[in-house]
Amino acid sequence: MNSGASVPIPVTRPGETAQIAVDLIAPLMVGSFQSSWKLQNAGGAFFGDLLYTQIVVVPADAAKPKPSLARFAADVTIPDGTPLLPGQTFTKIWRLTNAGVTTWDNTYSLVHIRDERMGAPESVPLPETRRGRSGEVAVTMTAPTRPGIYRSIWKPRDPTGNFFDHEMYLEIDVIDPSQRPLPPEKYDSPVSSADGRRYSIGWRFGVDVPYGAGVHQGVDYVSSVN
Fold first, then answer.
1. Is the preceding peptide bond at 8 cis, omega within 30 degrees of 0?
2. Of 114, 113, 110, which is closest to residue 95 (Cα–Cα)?
3. Which of 32, 36, 153, 174 is 20 to 30 A from 183, comparing alpha carbons?
4. 63 three-class SS
5. CB atoms within 10 A of CB 149
6. Which alpha helices (DSSP H) does the chain contain, by range?
7. For residue 10, how many C-alpha atoms fall within 13 Å in the half-sphere facing its CB?
8. Per-residue buried b or exposed e for 164-195, using 16+ beta carbons within 10 Å of the residue's own CB
9. Which residues of the chain have pLDDT under 70?
């Protein structure tokens, strides 16, 4: 990599640490390259571990930082596959990371680009987010009236109107109201009866009922662990 054959080592006593610098120039060809070095004493004998550096040479365009860049961080609400009723209004919130070199302000936006818009506006402003930080953007939508799987695709846009990576999407499952599943019930499980038997599931109906030595919040049916 266009360096000399050797570089001097600074005076270093036993037990001390030395810093050795070698000036290199990346090859003109794209690819992975390694340069290996080893210490040599005054008599020409090599000693110690092999020292090396490994680099990847990329095309010039790929090496340039992209001015604006977003990365998906998390689904704050409505994870993919969320069941919803026809016509139900909901708010999708994405957490995005500003992975570019610009600072987002209210002139940056998240824009619907394809699939179902679900009654949402064409665009919403991105949160004010500095480089390397994360922010949350919310879009209020209404589920379609017919059961099925629906997707909505969105993409960030800079103040000049140019889109930039990364696409964001949501996917919901609009269910038939007649087949609406019961909401999940929260309860302590497993529970123990007065005679010491343990049970794994229960059913709540919202009132305190006697259970063993005390009361339990509405368990009227249980099945044993076994």
1. no
2. 110
3. 153
4. helix
5. 10
6. 60-63
7. 8
8. beeebbbbbebbeeeeeeeeeeeeeeebeeee
9. 61-66, 179-226
